[in-house]
Model the fold of this input.
Amino acid sequence: MAPTEQYLLVSAALFVIGCVGVLSRRNLLVVLMSIELMLNAANLTFATFARASGLIDGQIVVFFVIAVAAAEAAVGLAIVVALFRKKETVNLDRFTMLHQ
Done:
């Protein structure tokens, strides 16, 4: 089994990739996928500490984060579809004025 530090390094790398994706991309779908990547990095950290400590608390948190991520994906996709129907694009620069 890999040591805890390797799991934490992978988790940190995933989180940084997600942050870069959120901050640098203008496509709404890519931003939502980057947020999911950040949530999965947090899940990996929770699961790593749960395994290292021998407690189940971290795994319970991971279960709730996965449930929230699934709901976020469903709501986010619905928002993307609604915005695409209105503006005919998923470029975030075009969504400054949502009421027009």
Notes: The chain has three helices and no strands. The chain has one domain: 4-91. The CA atoms of residues 12 and 98 lie 35 Å apart.
